[in-house]
Specification:
about 475 residues, mainly alpha, two-stranded antiparallel ribbon, about 0% strand, Sporulation_signal_mat, membrane, transmembrane, HTTM-like domain-containing protein, transmembrane helix
Length: about 475
């Protein structure tokens, strides 16, 4: 039997797997072998196309990640703000507890029993052991305490950050962990963030190190002493691509850390009956230990729907926080909401340092252009405020021409002289004010009233003195 001709054309390509089996003479029949070959070809084409699609997608993702990691440093201003706020938190916590340093961490703190049975093992680690070593001597411990506070200020100002940040981290953790009863979970987040911040570039902008680098002060990098001097000056030692990768990876780790905190806290709240019932905010605000503003707490909790909205809103905000970061509009809503959330905790529940630590980490989610615009607005407001405070009266600011008075000879008539008026600059004349005033040079009466100038100063002539009476005519 002769082989039937192959079916070609759009129909054959659209429906390649049609098998016509019919007994009879002269009817076309596609062989099973051709059908199988077409099936294999289509499957191979699908597999190859799918493989190319997957490989191409993976390559594009890897290329994007590589470019994002090593191309440039992201959130430079956000990380700098994080450094400033964390330095302020460290200094503020040490400063507010200075008078109670002996009772909390020094020789008078042995009442808590941690000198014998440690709850936290960090003070026993040699890196953080200096506070434990000097805690028995009040004078030595006070010196160490003040050094830690000075290092916190150095971190906040960005002075020699490559050296001061690790030293502050070691001393601060060694002091705070001496008394576990005086801390909270904010100390854990603070410690973790400080550790990761040492691998980023927190002093790239808004720091004294950045101003020093901008001045072009550099040194050689040949010997170990040259490297120590470069570290002291805050200069870079590693290749640029490696520093970019470390900085951006720190951003990823900080994002993951704050996401774990918010999502875990939100899920834990959702499983509790007070939170799911919408009454959880009421109870802690009525406890004297936490409620620092009883009148304000009573005002907030007086309306039941507000309590329920705050309880349920905090759960939704914490759980949805990582997803809201994916879009600019929702990211703004998330940051505004989380800022209000921490402000309420810090003001109403007496946890300012915990709230400020979390706000410091959240600063990395604000774009650099937003921080730059905010800084420009703040500088403009500061300049205007200084200009307003330095204003003097109008007459004091207006320069005057010297007045030259020439004496006339005795018996001669006095010549007219000019008394100079103050030299006044063009001033802003509001519409409707001074309707009959003339215009200054270059502006006529047709000029808009808002841009008319004040009348130019004109010399005031002094009339001649009357001649002395002579003898009467004959």
């Amino acid at each position: 039997m002769a082989r039937a001709p192959r079916v070609r054309g759009p129909v054959a390509r659209a429906v390649p797997f049609v098998l016509l089996l019919r007994a009879g003479k002269g009817l076309p029949v596609i062989a099973v072998r051709d059908v199988l070959l077409r099936i294999v070809a289509v499957i191979r084409h699908l597999v190859v196309s799918g493989w190319r699609l997957v490989v191409g997608g993976v390559i594009r993702i890897l290329s994007f990640c590589e470019q994002w990691l090593i191309g440039q440093r992201h959130a430079r201003y956000g990380v700098a703000v994080t450094r400033i706020l964390l330095g302020f938190v460290g200094f503020g916590l040490l400063w507010t507890n200075y008078t109670a340093r002996s009772y909390l961490y020094g020789p008078a703190s042995f009442w808590n029993g941690e000198e014998v049975d440690r709850i936290s093992q960090l003070p026993e680690v040699w890196v953080f052991g200096l506070g434990d070593l000097l805690s028995g001597d009040l004078v030595a411990f006070t010196v160490l305490y003040l050094v830690a506070a000075a290092l916190a200020l150095a971190v906040m100002l960005g002075w020699r950050t490559r050296l001061t940040l690790p030293l502050f981290f070691a001393l601060y953790v060694g002091i705070i962990e001496l008394n576990s009863a005086s801390g909270d979970q904010g100390d854990n987040a603070y410690r973790i963030c400080l550790f990761w911040l040492m691998f980023a570039d927190p002093a790239g902008v808004l720091s004294m190190d950045a101003r020093r680098r901008a001045a072009g002060i550099t040194g050689p990098n040949r010997t170990i002493w040259d490297r120590i001097r470069r570290i002291w000056r805050g200069e870079r030692l590693l290749p640029g691509w490696l520093q970019n990768a470390m900085h951006n990876l720190v951003l990823v780790l900080l994002t993951a850390q704050v996401t774990f905190i918010y999502v875990a806290g939100g899920l834990y709240k959702a499983g509790g009956e007070p939170w799911s019932g919408g009454t959880a905010v009421y109870a802690p605000l009525q406890v004297e230990k936490f409620s620092t503003w009883p009148e304000l707490a009573d005002l907030i909790t007086a309306w039941g729907p507000m309590v329920a909205l705050a309880s349920w809103g905090s759960i939704l905000l914490q759980i949805s926080f990582p997803f809201m970061l994916l879009n600019r509009f929702t990211r703004i809503l998330a940051l505004v909401g989380i800022l209000g959330f921490h402000a309420a905790i810090g003001l109403l529940m007496g946890l300012p340092w915990f709230s400020l630590s979390m706000v410091a980490i959240d600063a990395i989610f604000v774009r650099d252009r937003s921080w730059i615009a905010l800084g420009s607005a703040a500088r403009g407001a500061w300049r205007r405020a200084r200009a307003g405070s330095d204003d003097r009266t109008a007459d004091d600011r207006v320069p005057r021409r010297p007045v030259v008075v020439r004496k006339a000879p005795i018996g001669a008539p006095a010549e007219p002289r000019e008394v100079a008026e103050p030299v006044r600059e063009p001033v802003l004349v509001l519409a409707g004010a001074g309707a009959g005033a003339g215009a200054g040079a270059g502006a006529g009466d047709d000029a808009p009233p808002l841009f008319k100038s004040a009348p130019a100063a004109q010399p005031i002539p002094i009339p001649k003195a009357a001649p002395a009476p002579g003898p009467a005519p004959k």
